[in-house]
Amino acid sequence: MVNLPQQLSLGVNLNDDATFENFYAPAGTHNAMVLQGLRQQLNGAGDLFVYLWGAPGCGLTHLLQAACHEAQRLGFSVQYLPLRDLAGYAPDELFVGLDAVDFVCLDCLPTIAGRSDWELAIFNLYNRLRDAGKRLLVAAEQSPRELALGLEDLRSRLQWGLTYQVQSLNDEDKQQALQLRARARGLELGDEVAQYIIQRLPRDTNELFWQLQRLDHASLAEQRKLTIPFVKKILAI
After folding, report:
1. Which of 84, 96, 179, 190 has its CA 20 to 30 A from that of 11?
2. Spatial separation of the C-alpha atoms in residues 119 and 36, rounded to whole Å
3. Using CA atoms, how far apart are residues 57 and 4, in angstroms rounded to an integer?
4. Whole-angstrom Cα distance, residue 54 to residue 167?
């Protein structure tokens, strides 16, 4: 990560659980194609600019942070910027020096839509990164055409690279994704218990993974396996 002002350090931390390997995208699915496109962007076989969009909870933040981890593994300098947390700062100051970074990720783009200072700053950042041959990955809940942007030149730039829509998971896929994430944590999450969780919690994958983290901590603390009675006790569901 590049050096940002000290007060921003909490806003740019990466989640260690965010990896390409634990993003549920079976071979042959649309989301598997998205993963392939991100890998190609990083290994130099794809476009330098990639735009991801999809419904809340589809995994955009996970993919951006996973891409950052993969970029770091490849030896790139990396900066992840969650705009939802940083929109109160002056963008020109925030973006100083970013054109020297190999891989920049801008998350939650709609947060700054309609703000002329931010839109112009991102437009200029895009141009600087492109001129320097650096990589840029952007995520939003809408396609570039649907964003409520005031700067049409920025909308045009956002359509220059590759655009991928990340598809939301159905309930069966969410169960598989939850079990995949549990295995990555060293947890045994059987079908019956996974189905119990899916049926009783909000279907948002971010919420499901957050509750899995709670179960992981409780399981370690109490040295208990994940059973329905234990899950019911910890999550009160």
Report:
1. 179
2. 29
3. 28
4. 6
